[in-house]
Write a structure and sequence with these properties.
The complex is a heterodimer. Helices cover 31% and strands 21% of the residues of chain A. By secondary structure, chain A is of the alpha+beta class. In chain A, β5 and β6 form a beta hairpin. The termini of chain A are far apart. Chain B is an all-alpha fold. Classes of the chains: A alpha+beta, B mainly alpha.
Amino acid sequence: MQTALLFLFLVMSAAVSAQAIDVAKQRITLTLDAEPPSLNTFTSSDAISSEILVHVMEGLVQYGPDGKIMPAVAARWSSDNQGARFWLRKDARWSDGKPVTAHDFVFAWQQVVAPATASQYAFIFNPVKNAAAITRGELPVSALGVRAVNDYELEVLFERPCPYFVSLTAWVSYYPARRDIVAKWGRAYAADHDKAVYNGPFTLARWVHGAEILMRRNPQYWNNAATRLNEIHYAYVTKDELAKFNLFKNENTAYTTLSLGSLDSAMQAGYRVEQFQTAALFFLEFNHRPAHVTANLALRKAIQAVYDPDMVVYKMMGRPGTLPGRSLFPMTVRGHKGRFRDEYPARRLKPDLATAQRWLAQAKQELGVDQLPPLTLLASDSPLSIEQAEYLQFLLNKTLGISVQIDVQTFKQFIAKRGKGEFEISVAGWGPDYDDAMTFADLFASWNANNRGRYNNPAYDALIEQAGNSADPAVRFAAFAAMQQLIQDDVVILPIYEEVDLYLRHPALKGLYRPVFGGDLNLRFAWLEHSE
Amino acid sequence: MISWIIRRLFAGLVTVWFIATATFFAMHLVPGNPLDNEKAVAPEIRANLEKRYGLDKPLLAQYGIFLGNMARGDFGISFAQENREVNDILREHFPVSAVLGITALLFASIGGILGGALTAHFRGRVADRLVMVAVIAAISVPGFVVAALAQLAIVNMNSWHGSQLLPVAGWGSPSHIWVPALVLGLGTLAYLTRLMRSSMLEVMSADHIVTARAKGLSAMQVFRRHELRNALLPVVTELGPTVAAITTGGFVVELVFAIPGMGRYFVQAVQQLDYTVIMGTTVFYGAFLVLVVVVVDIIYGFIDPRIRLYGADQ
């Protein structure tokens, strides 16, 4: 009871009626969708945690406001086919004043790949020599291809050529950590604000679980002069979109994302809605396991010939900025010089009922049936996912007379059923993990655990190997272009749309940016200034 | 009396054990796993994760470990929120839900008892009809609608007045409590009003009330001494489980008003199949419910002298 009272007292003294912005104090208030699941960078793998971590921690490099890589702890670097070398700045310090050294990176990276850590993001180290073997328990962590040449020079050896390696080091899993602090707290490391040290522009000053997080300027940060905000206060924890919008409207928060429901209210209220391409692709995934009728190419071709992503995006979804899916690779994927899709455009398909019916007749003949059995369409219980499923059900029934049974499942059951292949078609999505086309391409490699439809094509696997073993952009992008075509010709999936995130921002909040990688909603360089 | 309480508590313990066991196996029967995520992991990492959380052992072994730990009051660490002990989640978030719930319960019981008693007295009049329509609306309209409307009302009121009359969401000061508590208690208030009204109507037509009137007691005395006290019994019965339900948190209210209570963990744990949190919250809720029911039985004896607790007069 005493603890209960103490807690109540703490909460009561902590929270005051929040104000969206305070220009004089350079302080902003925000909402957080949920309690961050893990602020331990060894295991952290979710968007909410990385939204916090990107402000209080810093890797070798970071994504700047222009979406390009810029220096962070590393002042400069070089990279070739064999490995990379980073020269660390000597003025980078932890929040307790100790210098950030190359040893802190070696220690942290070894922790991520260690089998005992069981990090879900250990795969992000696969380009580093021996990383995968260490995670499998075949080699000791000391075999990891990273070495501190001296306190301020870090040498990395590659498993295979990795032209995008430098950008990987902006990701949370590549952040440094202090051996002494981790040893001091053990299992409780980073479980509370005072159980970790920070090397980013902010530190965690307060963390009341489930209620609020306060980040304060870190005076030890090497580039403290460039930090303009003094405090970032996550005063509310809720993912209720309407509640978030109401808080914004009441000037309690400076920023909010918009859902289907709150978008209308925001437009009616005359707010300026801003958009952000999340780079996530949503698609219909076919089950290619031989026991399912969708293993038949002609059937998939028939469905492809009636499916129209333009219809879904422009007539059904009504979310400004959303792009119809045309390719496995979203528009955000980087190409040789500019955008991949500009350099290698995806062929655009037009719905054609006559062709579809020809394919369907062929499919029935090959399968030896007069009438196709009902197809199971697996969807998660999000409104958007159900809407997509209902459209396909209607479409296939109306155009091809195929009956579809929608199987709506809560998220965990949805994942479990997808993994076991209990579907003919599944509504699926994928967000990129790193800044290279491979993060989408290898999704359909026969060995990838995320290839839940079990598409298995040696020609596709060979293209993956080709792109993975080369550092030559010409070879790599030619391979990715061939994969793009193969995905379409083989109807591995049907792309639906490329996701856009809509949000509102207080007009006085400047310099906010939303990078696709390395922590969304970045306020490192933000400031408050009245527009007048 | 003491021996009766001890016996009841022991029976309660068995009930809690049963709840825990049923939940444990039902939870493991649900397809999916706390370690299943959007992105599938390599089999080696999967194996490491299962080892770390003890999911690599056979189910019965896991159950044995769970029972042993539960006996010591340790529910383990959350799957979804790494490094957080389930006990910490209960300790930090139950008090919040309890404060909110007790306030809601005060609204509900005072409003419900008075509303029910008065509408019974003014049966058939316009006021009675109006209240009954409102009661049916309050029972039928789902909580998330009421919560959203209440919040919208605050926003509009603040903007109309040009100042922060009431906070839109959040937790920490008394002003944060009133609206969510009212929303949380509204359904119970309406239900209790109906219950109290029908119970009151029954009592009002009883012979002893006629006698009381005949012997010249004032209407107020009849109301207080005879009607209210007798009509209260079914309401008290109902109040027991309601106390437990309301004080362990309303998921929707906590989500909409961004309140760090336990209700959110209750629902999220099930969605995320967070085994340890599911068990912790369920057992806690079960134990609390059992305790409240025992307490209500004791209170019964005080309200109604006709009811004697079994073995109490020995």
